[in-house]
Design brief:
Blueprint: E1 6-7, E2 13-17, E3 21-25, H1 32-45, E4 51-57, E5 60-65, H2 72-85, E6 95-103, H3 110-117, H4 121-129, E7 132-138, E8 145-148, E9 163-166, E10 170-174, E11 177-180, E12 191-194, E13 197-201, E14 224-233
Parallel strand pairs: 6-14
Antiparallel strand pairs: 1-2, 2-3, 3-5, 4-5, 6-13, 7-8, 7-14, 9-12, 10-11, 10-13
């Protein structure tokens, strides 16, 4: 959803989305302390009587409100005032470790990405598997999330023209992010189009969303992922 007309404030900025939502954009570069403040702000704002729901994004927060009760400009001012008082911090989430097979026919873009940065595939694997990645925001896949923590030396612009790659447990890099894809379910598509670079796959990729679990989501904001090297295939 793209904001329509902006409500004029200095950074951070609040914009009106349609007639019943505000998009709060935090100032500054993407970083964990800022995102922790957004998580806290989301919890606080979700308790306001005029707010219907909140959706955490990367460096932003979407606030859906009851248009019959709330004045958008007054609500935007209240958001900004609350933001000034919110402090970073919070409990550390759980850690999920997954084994990755890098390269091969399920990570066919590893060599291309390495060549783009002028390094060898082994260095890409080391740089990618060293950090712990933090779930910053829910993704388009229920149970997974947008991850933060990729080494800046691996930042790679997304492809302008998507390519077709095998589907299932993909480990990818696009822009300043890395991601873990869904496992392939029964009857699921064997391939998918993507602008991201597929550098490996997780043979035993976890199921991200299962209604028989409590909670059904595998990961929540603040949880962490570590990619463990199983092997590198040529």
């Amino acid at each position: 959803m793209k904001p329509s007309r902006p409500i004029e404030f200095a950074n951070p900025q609040v914009s009106l989305c349609g007639s019943a939502a505000l998009l709060f954009d935090a100032e500054g570069p993407m970083c964990l302390p800022t995102q922790e403040r957004i998580w806290t702000l989301s919890k606080q704002v979700g308790q306001w009587d005029v707010v219907v729901d909140t959706q955490v994004g990367m460096n932003n927060l979407l606030v859906l409100f009851d248009s019959s009760k709330a004045d958008p400009e007054a609500l935007a001012s209240r958001l900004l005032e609350s933001w000034r008082k919110v402090e970073p911090g919070g409990p550390q989430g759980k850690l999920l470790e997954v084994g990755v097979v890098y390269g091969g026919d399920r990570g066919m873009d590893l060599g291309e990405l390495a060549a783009h940065h002028g390094i060898d595939p082994e260095t890409v694997v080391k740089l990618h598997s060293t950090p712990e990645y933090v779930v910053f925001a829910p993704s388009t896949t229920p149970g997974f999330g947008y991850l933060f923590g990729l080494d800046p030396r691996l930042f790679t612009p997304r492809r302008k023209v998507p390519v077709v790659r095998p589907f299932g447990g993909n480990v990818t890099i696009g822009g300043g992010q890395s991601n873990l894809g869904n496992p392939r379910g029964a009857g699921g598509p064997p391939t998918f189009p993507t602008g991201w670079y597929v550098i490996g796959h997780v043979p035993e990729a976890p199921v991200p969303f299962d209604l028989s679990r409590n909670p059904p989501n595998l990961l929540d904001v603040g949880d962490r992922i570590r990619f463990r090297v199983e092997r590198i295939e040529r």
